[in-house]
Amino acid sequence: MRKITSIYLVFIALTLSTLQADTKMDKIVIAGPFASVSHPILHMIERGALKDVAKKVEFRLWKNPDELRAIAIKGDVDFVAIPTNTAAILNNKGVDIKLLNVSIWGILGMISRDKTIKTLKDFKGKKIAVPFRADMPDIVFKQLLKKQGLDPKKDFEFMYVSSPIDAMQMLILRRVDHALLAEPAISVALRKTKSFPINIIAPALYRSTDLQKEWAEVFNTDSDVPEAGIAVMGRMKNEKIISRFMEEYDKSLSWYMSHPKEAGILVAKKISMLSEEGVADSIAHINMKSINAPAAKEKLEFFFNILKEEDPKSIGGKLPKDSFYYKAK
């Protein structure tokens, strides 16, 4: 009798184990750029943070806003690290996407070969490399210039490029002396121009204007600018997995901010275009914290209205509906 009972208990245990395994997804797919918003995701994958809910977690790198929009419209990813305005555009176009959080509150800045340039007004008359024409960094930049009485078309010469990496390369090769960049590209560029043999052809570069500080002064607010975060795509309906994802993202973000050297090593291993020293340096110059989407709504709508003033298409023509801001049930 005891033997039968033991066998029965073993059978029950195996059955439960099988059922629990079956509740796991075969694969969770996450898309993101090379920028800071994606770096906690790489740490999540490295430490197997979601192994209780998925057999495999895949990261897909998107290199520009067009690639991002194509990925989102195709709908074959579960989560995406995304500029907040692009998430709003997609939502307004009928794509099933909800914003989970804002984690990037400040990564935009100017880099220059002229150490005397400190404010945006000091760039008047200069040639500046700018990534992502008519997208978020460009629009923020133009609005800051306009609010300070400058004319982006007449007072500056913009050289538009397809990505921050391209702008960084133009600086290194001396095709431009100034650029609008997002971290970690700023820190990577500074590192590259100090390393042999690059420094022979590229004089020292300097960290110049912090766009978030200019934002605070121009709009009489603080320097928290809700630039990017994490969104969930429509095919992911499992609230437990969404909750687990955000829980682990927040943990990895905390690790990332407090372990710059280790974070640099991890990110450079996964994204070859970045250097471990540059990533490590960048962490001291970013404003990164995870605020859930409903709590960030007021700042997001303030931000969206400013983008809309410059170009309504930059947010999809209107403020997104309340349903855009994901609320856990």
Characterise the protein shown here:
- The protein is of the alpha/beta class.
- It folds into two domains: 194 residues, D-Maltodextrin-Binding Protein, domain 2; 111 residues, 3-Layer(aba) Sandwich (D-Maltodextrin-Binding Protein, domain 2).
- Helix content is 44%, strand content 19%.
- The protein is built from 13 helices and eleven strands.
- The protein has a six-stranded mixed sheet with strand order 2-1-3-10-4-11, with helices on both faces. Strands 7-6-8-5-9 form a five-stranded mixed sheet, sandwiched between helices.
- The chain is globular and about 60 Å long.
CATH fold naming of the largest domain = D-Maltodextrin-Binding Protein, domain 2
pLDDT < 50 runs, ≥5 residues: 8-22
Main β-sheet, spatial strand arrangement? 2-1-3-10-4-11
CATH architecture name of the largest domain: 3-Layer(aba) Sandwich
| Biggest sheet layout | 6 strands, mixed
Compute the number of helices.
Answer: 13
State the shape: globular
Question: Percent of residues in helical segments?
Answer: 40-55%
Number of strands: 11
The whole-angstrom Rg is 22 Å
Number of domains: 2
User: How much is the average pLDDT?
Assistant: 91
Query: At the first level of CATH, what is the class of the largest domain?
Result: Alpha Beta
Order of helices and strands: HEHEHEHEEEHEHEHHEHEHHHEH
Residues in β-strands, percent: 15-25%
The helix-and-strand class reads: alpha/beta
**What is the terminal separation in angstroms?**
47 Å
CATH superfamily of the largest domain, please? Periplasmic binding protein-like II
